[in-house]
Amino acid sequence: MWFVLAVACCVPGAAAAQVFGTNLIVNGNAETGPGSADGSTLPVPNAPGWTVSGTLLVNQYGIAGGFPLSTDPGSPTRANNYFAGGPGSASSSAAQTINVAAGAASIDAGTASYNLSGWLGGFSSQDDNAALTITFRNAGATAIGSASIGPVTAADRGSITGMLLRSAGGAVPVGTRTIDVVLQMTRLAGSYNDGYADDLSLVLSGPAAASAQPVPTIGEWSLIVLIGLLMLAGRRHLRTGPLVRRR
């Protein structure tokens, strides 16, 4: 009986573990869905997982005309696409909201932390740029903290088209239940908004992240319980079996 109870007690931690130790930003690498092949035609769907404002779009690497190439400075894990500010808009953005209520125990104990990172950049000597901001909100949707990375200026890039890694970290504010993520692109020169971004990540860490173990499947649970019952039955048989007389 104690064996079965010990197994069952492990289930509640599974949901919390899903909040910790993994990238919580949906489609942070711009690879969910197609990329524009010319830098102006919006792909359909455009940036799945994000709510887009203005002309922000997902571009393919290698578009002619000075857009980022796969060989330009940028993420070593980049794939086919990246985020761009887009044509015509001085300001464009993409946003999403992440629910972290499953990690409330660790967050409210003050033991949860975050790491925000991303590859941000722009075009040549222009200062068009990208910035990534997160806002922590409590159960009443009130902002209780924020953090941001970027922008990366032309001087930072050495006036070379490309993206540089930026990151920030700290404690998750006690009471946090949702986190708003906003990718902001700003045009400061030319006609195209050349704020660029790729491989955006938000990872929370807490006690659950360090102690989390793979969660058994339903079939594995059944096998574990069966083994426990057989062990108990075997012990009971040993106690109630025939007595052996000593000489």
Oligomer: single chain
Name the beta content range. 25-35%
Second CATH tier, the architecture? Sandwich
**Structural class given helices, strands, pairing?**
alpha+beta
Order of helices and strands: HHEEEEHEEEHEEEHH
* Ends apart, CA distance between termini: 37 Å
Strand order, largest beta sheet: 1-4-9-6-7
Low-confidence stretches: 1-12, 208-213, 242-247
Question: Mind telling me the CATH class?
Answer: Mainly Beta
Number of helical segments with 4 or more residues: 6
Helix content: 10-25%
Shape: elongated
In CATH, the homologous superfamily goes by the name Galactose-binding domain-like
Q: Which fold name fills CATH's third level, the topology?
A: Jelly Rolls
Largest sheet geometry: 5 strands, antiparallel
How would you concisely characterize the structure shown here?
The chain has 247 residues and is an alpha+beta fold. The chain is built from six helices and ten strands. It has one domain (21-211): Jelly Rolls (Sandwich), CATH 2.60.120.
